[in-house]
Amino acid sequence: MNILVVDDDALSLRLLTALVEKLGHRVIAASDGLSAWEIYRQRECRVVISDWNMPGIDGIEFLTRIRAIGGTSYTYFIMLTSRSDREDVAAGMTAGADDLLIKPISRDDLEARLNVAKRIVSLHMELASRNAELMSVNQRMRQDLQAAVKVQEALLPVSLPQIPKHQFAWLYRPCDQLGGDTLNLFRLDEHHLGFYVLDVSGHGVSSALLAVQVSRFLSPLIAIGALPKIAIAEKPGYRLTSPLEVIRQLNDLFPMSDTAMQYFTIIYGHYHLPSHTIKLAAAGHPGPVSVNKDGQSQHHDLAGNPIGFFPTDTACFAEAEIPLGPGERIYFFSDGVVETMDSAQTIIGNDRLAEAMAQARTGTLDGDLAVIEQALNAWRKGEPPTDDVSIVVMEREL
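Structure (tokenized):
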């Protein structure tokens, strides 16, 4: 390896250069600190042996400049001095020297120090190489993660149904870059809207992948594997799958694995436009909150097991029919909403959440969702969210 040797005494420099070369190393010699600094900036020198006392730039100043460069490459610095008192040794080490050699230098002492230097430099080079590999892997992972985020975002509603005398809106805030929640609101046919809010246990890539996989089965298109609409021979060429039947089929498709231990909760339903009736089924998911035209709220409690916990013949799922009156709105949400926690680990709970939803009256559903989000943030009191937040809201206007 290249070793930069610096000494303003010509005889000492020749002797030290010859000794280092006899030990099998390539030497770059400099007669003062300034020329050594210029050489160091231009050449690859991972080991420096420098005299302490030199005119102009002394050994401490030279060492300080080297350490100020930083970077991933490490330079092992051996300071030469005739000083042997403890304060001087401490000063050299404080400046960043790796080792000090007291003049006159013996061959054995120098060889031992250079062997240590070689090992240290090799370890730093290996560490730098590993870090570079990790940075490359991390970069690829970040790119893959960004691609996964785009896939997940593509599953969210691009446009909402346009129905006279109705408003619809949604809010999705993952607590990590990738969330385990997803949601949708879509037109099933001229008489029905379909909707769901889905919450996979955990966060990150595995939860997001499961959410994406489940959402494919909930496509409103008539397609292989899609559950909401089943093709039939009779007119109109399809039948709508009841919400409870959809939940049961999802439970058959996604049993919880002993290795992954991953499950999800879901609320899935139909809104029948002619009768203004919502028919829904839920699997371990929070029940909705409805707010009437007078601002009175009601939480609809739904019990049941999450998807995948039990075989379908023994699993318990919840059903409900909820009329939507004039001027009334209804909120469907994930447990990350109702279980928003403050610094004392106290959740906001159904009653406070229903109150916040009842008080959110800005004139638009998007504005109301922003007010509700502010209420959740205020409840956390600066604490970061611990779960994804997903809300779907629909309103029947007066």
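The first strand starts at residue 2 and ends at 6. The domain at 2-129 is CATH 3.40.50.2300 (Rossmann fold).
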